[in-house]
Amino acid sequence: MTLDEARAAQKKEPKKIFMDVYTNWCGPCKLLDKNTFQNPDVSRYISEHFYAVKFNAEGTEEITFYNQKFTNPNYDPNRNGRNATHQFTQFLGVRGYPTMVFFSEDGDPIMPLVGYYKPKQIELYLKMIKQGDYQVFSKPEDFENYKNKFVPRFRG
After folding, report:
1. Is 129 helix (H, G, I), strand (E, B) or coil?
2. Strand runs (DSSP E) across the chain, as ranges?
3. I want to staple 28 with a disulfide (CB 3.0 to 4.6 A). Which of 43, 62, 116, 138 is the partner?
């Protein structure tokens, strides 16, 4: 599902969006896909509670967001490995891969999550965002307390 498709789906059935921002050359991105996103608990939870979007941070997809078009005008189709960074990747402030970005039911960015996470590690963030618990944190200690009390249920 593309971001534009997910945002259109939100109008019919409001759900948050989970976007996996990856590149083709990124080793940790491939591990995240293989070990975390293919985990039955993770994939089930994401598909039930989010619109899942995969976005190539160096790809050519055209995205319309906040009435602005984002493309990758410097993309070189003959280049192997790293390529030009997509304008939407820059707009989101993504600086490393993999990055997962959560969007609200209204399509507004909530927060990025950078790096490789195992199923039990990502579970905390999936549930915190889905349930809206992140909205009550007013200081870093609030998140630390939440994290320390969290009991993971996912396998793997």
Report:
1. helix
2. 16-22, 50-56, 63-65, 68-70, 99-103, 109-114
3. 116
* Inter-residue contact 68 to 16 (CB < 8 Å): no
In this predicted structure, what is the pLDDT of residue 156? 80
Contact 119, 41 (CB under 8 A): yes
Mean pLDDT per segment of 10 residues, for the chain of length 156 residues? 96 98 98 98 98 98 96 96 97 97 97 97 98 94 96 92
In this structure, what token pair is assigned to residue 109?
């960015």
This model's pTM is above 0.85: yes
Confidence (pLDDT) at 131: 96
Q: Are 87 and 116 in contact (CB under 8 A)?
A: no
Domain extent listing, the chain: 3-149
DSSP annotation of 85 reads P
Burial of 112 (0-12, 13-18, 19+ CB in 10 A): middle
Would you identify the CATH topology of the domain 3-149? Glutaredoxin (3.40.30)
* Residues 32 and 116: beta-carbon distance below 8 Å: yes
Are 17 and 49 a contacting pair, CB within 8 Å? no
The tokens describing 76, both together, are 């070189």
Residue type, 34: K
